[in-house]
C-alpha cells in the first residue's frame, strides 16, 4: 500500500522556509502532480519524500510507516531525476541492473531477465550494451525510467523529467508516462512547473506557492473552482484575466469597467470592499462592433479594441483593451474559435456573462465566488 | 598568432608596421624562453656523453665529436645506480598507490557525503598541507628509530620474502611518512574533482539502495580514473625526487637501502674533483622513471586537468 501522508511537514534551510506546514494525503496508486513556480518548495518536498533532505518538523509517512529519518536506501522508492543521473561508466544494462542488486528475492538469472523485460517494455532493448553518453536525450530518459521501474517500488518520484526534452518529444512522453503509470499501478509523485503537464497528467494536482499548499484537488476542480487567486492564475493557459477594482452599489467598478452583479454574485461577495474579478479567456464572447458606433450595450457588454491576435489554428487568442484605455495598460485576453477571425485595430463588443465570473478578495486573494457550472455537469465540490 | 588583415583597420600602413614589430617581438621572446629552458637540458645530455677531457675543452652545449664521445659515463652510472633504482621504486610505487587510494577515499567522504563535523576534519587536512618538512625532521627520526622501530621489527620478515632483501625494511618508515605527508594535498586535488561531479549521481545510487562504500567502489572510483592518473603522476614525482625525508631516515648514501636521491650527490666525486660527465649521466638515468611515467600517462593527465578546469 503506497499511501503517502504529509503531516504539518516543514523544512527550513537556515533562515529560509522552503516548505511550510504541508498537510495532505496521497492515495495508493494515485498520480499526484506537485506544481508551482520556481522556488515554491515542490522539489524540496520531493526530496524529503526521497530521503535526500530531512524535515525540520512535522511527519512523513509512506505506506503507513514513519519515514522522517529513514535513509533513502531503505525507503523502497524510485526516482527519476531531471538530469537523469545515469552512471556514465556503466552500460545501460548495468545501469538498470544496479538498483536490482540490492533487492532481495532475485537470483542473478532472474535479475538479468527482469532487466531485459523492462527494457523491452520501454523499447530500449537494442540499446542495452551502449553507454549513456552514446544515447539521445529521449533514450536516456527511458533508461532513467527503466531504472526506476525495474525495482517495483512503492512510490515513483519524478523531478521534472520532461524538462530537458524538446516540445514534440515532451508531448509524446507525457502520454507514455500516463499509460505506464496506469499499467504499473504505482503511486507516483510528479513535480513540474508546467501547468499543462499538471492538468493533463495528474489524477490530482497540488499547487504550492512560497512553501505553502494553495490547493489540492482534481484538475477540473482547480480549474473551475480555485480556492484563491494564485491557483486561478496558475492553472489555465492562457491565464485567467484579473480586473482590480472596488465594490460599488451595483457590483464591481474598475478603472474602465463597471460590472453589475446578479443575485448570486451579490450574495457571495457580501461586504468585501477590495475586489478582483476573474474571467477565463474562453468565457469572453467577442463579436464585431458593427456599423452603429452608438449601439446601446447590455449591462455586461463592453466596447473594446483588439490590439493583438494570435492564431493557433484551433483557436485565436485575442488581446483586448478598453476603448477609453489609450495607453493599453489594462488588457484582457479572450479565446475565440479558430474560424472566427478578428483583426488588430478592430472595434469589438465583448460580453461576459455573470455565471462565468470569479470574484476574489482583493486583499487576501481568497475566492469569494466561482463560476457557476451547468447543473448537469456540475462537480460536487 | 593570426594577423589576418582586418576590415576595421583603415590605416594600412600602421597595420603592416604593427605586424612586423609584433611578430619580431613575439619570436624573440619565444626563442629566449626556449633557450632558457632547453639549454641546461641540452648541456646535461651533451656532458653525459663526453669524456672528461672533452668536458674541459669544449663548450658545454656543443655535442661531443669524435674522440670526445663516450658511453662509459652512462655505463658507470648505471652500474652504480642499479640497486638504488630498485630501492627508490620499491619505496615510491607502494607509497604513491596507497597515497592516492587513501586520498580519494578521504575526498569522497568529505565531499560527497554529508555528516556532522566534517568541516573540522577538512580543516585538519588543510593544515596538514602547510606543515613544512623541516619542522618535523627531528621528531620523525626519533619516532622511527626509538619509539616505533618498525624497520627492525620487519627485517626478519623481509629477509624471508623472495625478491626483496632484509635491509629493504628500512624503506617502510619512509613509505609511511610519505603517505602521511602526501594525503592532504592529494585529497585536495580529488576534492576539487569530486566537487565538479553532479550530486545527483550519488543521490541516484543511494535511492538504488547502495551503501556509501558501494557507491564509492562501483560509481565514484571508476569515474575518477582521469584524476587518478593526474594525482599518481604528481605524487610519484614528488616522492621519487624527495631528498629530505630519505636523508633523515636512511642517513647514509652507503647503506644498501639508499634511494636514488641520496646517491646522486655523491656519485662521480673523487680525489681529483668532480667528474661532471658521470654526474650528468647519473642525473638523466635517475630522471628516466618519471619521464616514462609522464609519457605513458600524458593523455590521462591532460584529460584530468581538463576536467578540473571545466
TrEMBL record, chain A:
The complex is composed of two ATP-binding proteins (XacJ and XacK), two transmembrane proteins (XacH and XacI) and a solute-binding protein (XacG). Residues 4-235 form the ABC transporter domain. One of its GO terms (cellular component) is ATP-binding cassette (ABC) transporter complex, substrate-binding subunit-containing. It is a peripheral membrane protein. One of its GO terms (biological process) is carbohydrate transport. The keyword Membrane applies. This is ABC-type D-xylose/L-arabinose transporter. CDD domains: ABC_MalK_N. It is an enzyme of class 7 (translocase). Keywords: ATP-binding, Cell membrane, Membrane, Nucleotide-binding, Translocase, Transport. It comes from Haloterrigena salina JCM 13891. SUPFAM superfamilies: MOP-like (SSF50331), P-loop containing nucleoside triphosphate hydrolases (SSF52540). PROSITE patterns: ABC_TRANSPORTER_1 (PS00211), ABC_TRANSPORTER_2 (PS50893). It holds the Pfam family ABC_tran. GO terms for molecular function: ABC-type transporter activity; ATP binding; ATP hydrolysis activity. Part of the ABC transporter complex XacGHIJK involved in the uptake of xylose and arabinose. Responsible for energy coupling to the transport system. Belongs to the ABC transporter superfamily. Carbohydrate uptake transporter-1 (CUT1) (TC 3.A.1.1) family. Its EC number is 7.5.2.13. It catalyses: D-xylose(out) + ATP + H2O = D-xylose(in) + ADP + phosphate + H(+); L-arabinose(out) + ATP + H2O = L-arabinose(in) + ADP + phosphate + H(+). It comes from the Archaea. It is found in: Cell membrane.
From TrEMBL, chain B:
Signal peptide: none annotated. PROSITE patterns: ABC_TM1. It is found in: Cell membrane. Residues 85-297 form the ABC transmembrane type-1 domain. InterPro entries: MetI-like, MetI-like_sf. GO terms for biological process: transmembrane transport. Pfam families: BPD_transp_1 (PF00528). GO terms for cellular component: plasma membrane. Belongs to the binding-protein-dependent transport system permease family. This is Sugar ABC transporter permease.
Amino acid at each position: 500500500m503506497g499511501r503517502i501522508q504529509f503531516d504539518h511537514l516543514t523544512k527550513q534551510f537556515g533562515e529560509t522556509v522552503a516548505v511550510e506546514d504541508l498537510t495532505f494525503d496521497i492515495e495508493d496508486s494515485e498520480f499526484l502532480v506537485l506544481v508551482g513556480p520556481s522556488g515554491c518548495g515542490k522539489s524540496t518536498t520531493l526530496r524529503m519524500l526521497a530521503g535526500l533532505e530531512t524535515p525540520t518538523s512535522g511527519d512523513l509517512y509512506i505506506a503507513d510507516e514513519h519515514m522522517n529519518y529513514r535513509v533513502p536506501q531503505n525507503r523502497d522508492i524510485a526516482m527519476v531525476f531531471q538530469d537523469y543521473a545515469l552512471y556514465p561508466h556503466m552500460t545501460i544494462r548495468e545501469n538498470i541492473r544496479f538498483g536490482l542488486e540490492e533487492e532481495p528475492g532475485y537470483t542473478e538469472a532472474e535479475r538479468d531477465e527482469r532487466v531485459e523485460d523492462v527494457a523491452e517494455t520501454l523499447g530500449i532493448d537494442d540499446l542495452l550494451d551502449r553507454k549513456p553518453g552514446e544515447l539521445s536525450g529521449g533514450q536516456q530518459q527511458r533508461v532513467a525510467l527503466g531504472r526506476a521501474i525495474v525495482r517495483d517500488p512503492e512510490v515513483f518520484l519524478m523531478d521534472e523529467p520532461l524538462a530537458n526534452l524538446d516540445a514534440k518529444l515532451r508531448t509524446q512522453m507525457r502520454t507514455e508516462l500516463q499509460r505506464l503509470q496506469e499499467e504499473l499501478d504505482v503511486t507516483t509523485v510528479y513535480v513540474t512547473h508546467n501547468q499543462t503537464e499538471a492538468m493533463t497528467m495528474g489524477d490530482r494536482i497540488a499547487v504550492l506557492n512560497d512553501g505553502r499548499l494553495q490547493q489540492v484537488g482534481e484538475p477540473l476542480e482547480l480549474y473551475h473552482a480555485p480556492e484563491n487567486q494564485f491557483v486561478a492564475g496558475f492553472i489555465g493557459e492562457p491565464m485567467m484575466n484579473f480586473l482590480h477594482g472596488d465594490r460599488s452599489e451595483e457590483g464591481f467598478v474598475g478603472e474602465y469597467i463597471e460590472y453589475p452583479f446578479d443575485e448570486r454574485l451579490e450574495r457571495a461577495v457580501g461586504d468585501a470592499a477590495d475586489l478582483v474579478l476573474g474571467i477565463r479567456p474562453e468565457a469572453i464572447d467577442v463579436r464585431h462592433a458593427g456599423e452603429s458606433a452608438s449601439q446601446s450595450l447590455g449591462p455586461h457588454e463592453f466596447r473594446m479594441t483588439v490590439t493583438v491576435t494570435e492564431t493557433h489554428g484551433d483557436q485565436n487568442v485575442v488581446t483586448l483593451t478598453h476603448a477609453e484605455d489609450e495607453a493599453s495598460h489594462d488588457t484582457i485576453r479572450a479565446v475565440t474559435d479558430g474560424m472566427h477571425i478578428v483583426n488588430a485595430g478592430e472595434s469589438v463588443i465583448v460580453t461576459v456573462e455573470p455565471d462565468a465570473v470569479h470574484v476574489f478578495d482583493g486583499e487576501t486573494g481568497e475566492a469569494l465566488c466561482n463560476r457557476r457550472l451547468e447543473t448537469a455537469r456540475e462537480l460536487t465540490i | 598568432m593570426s594577423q589576418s588583415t582586418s576590415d576595421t583597420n583603415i590605416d594600412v600602413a600602421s597595420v603592416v608596421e604593427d605586424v612586423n614589430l609584433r611578430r619580431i617581438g613575439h619570436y624573440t621572446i619565444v626563442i629566449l624562453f626556449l633557450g632558457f629552458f632547453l639549454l641546461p637540458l641540452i648541456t646535461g645530455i651533451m656532458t653525459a656523453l663526453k669524456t672528461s677531457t672533452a668536458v674541459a675543452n669544449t663548450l658545454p652545449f656543443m655535442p661531443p665529436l669524435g674522440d670526445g664521445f663516450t658511453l662509459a659515463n652512462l655505463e658507470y652510472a648505471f652500474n652504480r645506480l642499479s640497486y638504488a633504482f630498485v630501492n627508490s621504486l620499491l619505496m615510491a610505487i607502494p607509497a604513491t598507490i596507497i597515497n592516492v587510494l587513501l586520498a580519494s577515499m578521504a575526498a569522497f567522504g568529505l565531499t560527497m557525503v554529508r555528516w556532522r563535523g566534517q568541516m573540522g576534519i577538512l580543516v585538519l587536512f588543510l593544515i596538514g598541507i602547510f606543515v613544512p618538512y623541516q619542522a618535523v625532521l627531528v621528531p620523525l627520526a626519533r619516532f622511527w628509530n626509538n619509539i616505533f622501530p618498525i624497520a627492525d621489527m620487519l627485517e626478519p620478515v623481509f629477509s624471508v620474502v623472495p625478491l626483496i632483501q632484509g635491509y629493504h625494511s628500512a624503506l617502510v618508515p619512509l613509505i609511511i611518512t610519505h603517505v602521511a605527508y602526501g594525503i592532504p594535498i592529494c585529497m585536495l586535488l580529488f576534492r576539487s574533482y569530486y566537487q565538479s561531479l553532479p550530486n545527483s549521481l550519488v543521490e541516484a545510487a543511494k535511492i538504488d539502495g547502495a551503501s556509501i562504500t558501494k557507491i564509492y567502489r562501483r560509481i565514484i572510483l571508476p569515474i575518477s580514473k582521469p584524476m587518478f592518473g593526474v594525482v599518481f603522476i604528481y605524487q610519484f614525482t614528488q616522492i621519487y625526487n624527495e631528498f629530505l625525508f630519505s636523508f633523515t631516515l636512511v642517513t647514509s648514501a652507503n647503506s644498501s637501502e639508499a634511494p636514488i636521491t641520496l646517491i646522486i650527490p655523491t656519485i662521480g666525486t673523487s680525489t681529483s674533483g668532480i667528474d661532471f660527465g658521470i654526474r650528468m649521466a647519473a642525473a638523466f638515468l635517475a630522471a628516466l622513471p618519471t619521464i616514462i611515467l609522464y609519457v605513458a600517462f600524458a593523455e590521462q593527465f591532460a584529460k584530468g586537468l581538463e576536467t578540473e578546469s571545466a
